[in-house]
TrEMBL record:
Keywords linked to the UniProt accession: DNA-binding, Phosphoprotein, Transcription, Transcription regulation, Two-component regulatory system
Source organism, top-level taxon: Bacteria
One cellular component term from this protein's GO annotations in UniProt: protein-DNA complex
OmpR/PhoB-type domain ranges (all copies): 124-218
Entry's Gene Ontology molecular function annotations: phosphorelay response regulator activity; transcription cis-regulatory region binding
PROSITE patterns according to UniProt: OMPR_PHOB, RESPONSE_REGULATORY
Keyword Phosphoprotein: yes
Domain Response regulatory stretches: 2-116
Segments of the chain annotated as binding DNA: 124-218
SUPFAM superfamilies: C-terminal effector domain of the bipartite response regulators, CheY-like
4-aspartylphosphate PTM sites in chain numbering: 51
SMART domains: REC, Trans_reg_C
Protein name: Response regulator transcription factor
Length: 230
């Protein structure tokens, strides 16, 4: 999962970015509203953490412009404790949730997890597909109750697939959501990670849809539509 963080306080930006990365997310960060708006307008993100008080372009304006351009990614705004009007303005501009400064980083992480879950139609932190369970709260994956040993990239790919269970996800989309903007992206590496995951979770859970990409599916559920090959 890929997150955009827009916060002008360099130290707070660093702290939040490190905490999000430790939780398994790929994070792009910006220190002002103009760069933040540009990134959010040109790159695909699963969630945005957006400060309201930004230089060059304030957070409300950034958010309004995204929504006017039909950018629908969930947005968590950061507001000052005594600025209740910022919370109202942020929600009215299209924010999905807010956190008041100062905050515990665990609250930010919990709200980010919740926003990503809701955006993909899930209600709990434990996402299931047949014998597979991915716990987004603890960043653990289990098959038949047994914990899997996954690399960070393998977990990110599996997490993205299970958030979009039963949907066909292209190699390009996976690549865009697995790596930050500075990474030298190569969609061929996705095939390598898919191969590794199949050996760990079972070959019948990740389906290859010819010419389109991959789909995580419960083999016990009947699939209709596009023909596939595993």
């Amino acid at each position: 999962m890929r997150i955009l963080l827009v916060e002008d306080d360099a130290e707070l930006n660093r702290q939040i970015k490190e905490s999000l990365e430790d939780a398994g997310y790929v994070v792009d960060s910006a220190l002002d509203g103009e760069e933040g708006h540009f990134l959010g307008d040109t790159e695909p993100y699963d969630c945005v953490v957006l400060d309201i008080g930004l230089p060059l372009m304030d957070g409300i304006s950034v958010l309004q412009r995204w929504r006017e351009d039909e950018r629908t990614m969930p947005v968590l705004i950061l507001t000052a404790r005594d600025r209740w009007n910022d919370k109202v303005a942020g929600i009215d501009a299209g924010a999905d949730d807010y956190v008041t400064k100062p905050f515990h980083i665990e609250e930010v992480l919990a709200r980010v997890r919740a926003l990503i879950r809701r955006a993909s139609g899930h209600a709990t932190s434990e996402l299931a597909c047949g014998p597979l369970i991915v716990d987004t709260k603890t960043s653990r994956a289990l098959v038949d109750g047994k914990a899997l040993k996954l690399t960070s990239h393998e977990f990110r790919l599996l997490s993205y697939l299970i958030h979009h269970k039963a949907e066909v996800v292209s190699r390009t989309e996976l690549t865009e959501h697995l790596y930050d903007q500075d990474f030298d992206r190569d969609s061929n590496t996705v095939e390598v990670f898919v191969g590794r995951l199949r050996r760990k979770i079972g070959h019948d859970l990740i389906e290859t849809v010819r010419g389109l990409g991959y789909r995580l599916r419960d083999p016990g559920e009947e699939q209709a539509g596009t023909p596939a090959a595993s």
